[in-house]
Write a structure and sequence with these properties.
Length: about 280
Amino acid sequence: MQYPQIKQGAILVGTSGYSYADWMEYGFYPAGTKSAKMLPLYAEHFRITELNNTWYQMPKADATARRLALVPEKFLFTVKLTRSLTHEVEPEFWARRAAEFRAGIAPLQQAGRLLAVLMQLPPSFTRTLENRRYLGNLMAALEGVPLAVEFRHKSWADDHVFAELEKRRVTLVAVDEPPLPNLFPPLDVVTNPALFYVRFHGRNSGGWHSGNMQKQFDYDYAAAELEEWIEKRIGLMARKSAVGVLFFNNHVRAQAPNNALLMMHLLRQRGLETG
């Protein structure tokens, strides 16, 4: 898929979600900013966001269309697949919910503003035959929608998996997260020449399994850690893909937007296009 809004070789940077009340306290949004006003303010800094409220609730086409009216014409979105298709799957209902999801995001796709749908799978979703079949069926149900899949279990770090994603033109999401047992490792594997996708979750090992998102994603990246990603992985991935996107999910205390702005600065220092 081609995106006329993006220069060939560009790497777009943003955050996983944008509506966080504590971002006012830490200076990213002015004090008193209403949630409905956050997206236009966010778009003054970034050209893309990852919608994550769609994980909690099924997107509705009218609400999706309203978002388009709040941002510039070149602003793009990725959308996180609803949890009823990834984490809380009911075999008798999932196909219907996949159709509902497609309908809910249709305004973004029709406007050419949908970069990808993020299929984030839980750590319990290991590489079993049953799970492989479900994932294949789900991808088929979403055929025609640009897909990116994020595995959370190391069993999926396998060349056969990468080959199948390449065959389907599905983007493998690269992740930065704590070096804990069984988590999916940080890789530079590109399975879709149209897009590479990286998510930075932070490296808070102590809070990762706490069950508290404020602890799990409480992490502030140092410049050296981001520079290492650029030198070891992002530069290589950019040479293999038409477009790249980097999202920061360490949302606590506005660390995500601050780290995203830092990453943009570091990319530009190295002559990489940021859109």
